[in-house]
Every structure is written in C-alpha cells, then in structure tokens.
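Sample entry (340 residues):
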Amino acid sequence: MKGVVFHEFGGVEKLKFEDFPEPKAGVGEILVRIKACALNHLDIWERQGLPGVNLPHISGSDIAGVVEECGASVEGIKKGDEVILSPGISCMKCSRCLNGDDNQCSQYNIIGYRNNGGYAEYIAVPQVNVLPKPTRLSFEEAASMPLVFLTAWHMLVNRAGVKPSDIVLVQAGGSGVGIAAIQIAKIFGAFVITTVGSDEKMQKAKGIGADEVINYQRQDFEGEVKKITGKQGVDIVIEHIGPEIWDQSIRLLATNGRLVTCGATSGPSASIDLRYVFSRHLSILGSYMGRKNELLEVLRFIESGRLKPVVHKVFELKDAATAQQEMLDRKNFGKIVLKV
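Predicted structure, serialized as tokens:
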C-alpha cells in the first residue's frame, strides 16, 4: 500500500510518500480502507520526536473509511460498511476500562501514536474502535470530527461541568478543539468568548456560535475579556496552548472558575501565582482524550445537525508535508484533512 512515512525525526521534509507493508486484520480486528484522515498537532509532535514513537512511522489518528476485511470473531460489521474510528485504544479488561474510564487505562494508546495510523491506504484496528460513519457527512467531514469533538466534550461536560449560566473562554477558537468547544458550550447554553488570529477567523467563529470573538493579533485578549464580562472574569477556560497564554487565562477566571487544559502547543512548562488559585477557589483540571461512550454522545448531536464538523482544507495524501506546514503556520480555521 501507499503511505506517508517518516524514517527519522525532524521537519516536514522527513515525510515520504512511499510503499509500505499492508496491515492484516487479526482476531477481533477489522481492516479498513481509509478514505480520509484529519491532521492533529499530535502528528507534528510525533514527527519531531515524541517519546514512544517507533520508526519508521505513519501518523494519523482521525480516520474515516470503508470496511475491507473482518478478522476472526468479528460480528455485526461487514465488508463495505462506511465507518469512522474511535481514536483511543485501551485494554478493555482493567477496572478503569470496565468502569467506562477507558481513557485512563494504563495501556491507553491513540491510533497513530505508538502504532501506525491513517496517513495510508489501510489500517487494522480492534472492532470496538469501529463505529458507523454519520450518514449526513462526507468521508472528509467524518474524519475531521472524532478526536477533537471527543476531547472538547470531555473537557467541557465531564471535567468542567458546563452549565447554562457559565461564561466560557475558548482559547484558539479556530483550532480543531476550539471549533468543537464553541459548539458544545453553546449546546449547553453557555455564553462563549473565543480568541482567533485574524479578522477572517473572527467572522467564521461567529458563524459557528461564538458570542464574542477577540483577534489576539491586534487586541489584548485579557483586557477585552475583562471589558466583556464587566471585570467579573469567566467561569471556564478551555485551552491547549500552554505558557503563551497561561498567566492571562488564570487571571481571567472568576471565583470558583475552572481552567481545563488538554495540551501544550507553545511548550510544556508554565508557572502559576498560587494566590489566585486559593483566594478565588480556582480549579485547574487536566483532560486527556475522552471516554468511548462520550464519542457516542457526540455522534448523536452530529447526526441531528446540532454539532457540525468544520473542514478548513483537503489535501491529497501525497501532500501531507504541505498540509502539516499549513497547520504549523496557523492558517487553518477548523480541520485539515488528507484525502486518500
């Protein structure tokens, strides 16, 4: 099969479109003919040398395709079914998995991280990770949705406990997590403020439901949020950027505010003024992916049309290096997708 492979860590030039051995469906597994795969920042970190990545490697966690073959013991799925893949793989045997917290399994893995992923023509995955593709979506739209909508749902609903009276600040509203978080917060009746990097993105963020949008390139987002909230601050901050906006995000939290973080795009280390934390009863919450049953909740809202994937641009698989550079340059509003 054809795939986009890197044999050593480094820049986008390390990505090579080449022949690679086709995977086989083992017991309880399904071989999927990939139709589309969306990009995530995880793909970039893998290429740059994220610990746990084995070489040669194929990235790609967000996948939509067609069932090509079913391994032994597979039931309820047949060749030709249009599917998406739940991106988290766990043992499904430990107490955490059996309790529904599969994203906290000690063996948890994300498709395309410690194993090969979706920048290719085929992938073999456990049956439990295969779900019906929403009928209203194209393959490109379907691939753009699972990881970021699952992540944003877990952050807002499970970790932050979003409710109608909340004011939510979504950092980087044009990112995959950002476009999902804006929509999910609105479903729960929250007032949403978001930050973006251009005037063009401001209009797009308004278009998916944001109540107030701040262009951080030409506005002081901390000052603007204070104006919008009458200096009261926000109840929830959703962020995955890290130290670049960490201090301001903490200062913007109102009493009993919750900051939920799921990433560290601008770096892994951030300092904190503990006086804000204890004097305002703040909660700083980590969030990693989400539960499989939460993705089923997301899919119900996708099928009803209340949540909508946002695709920025579609590239051919062979142009994966150009697609990753588009993400690195922060040009995207929504997801960048590879068509296979």
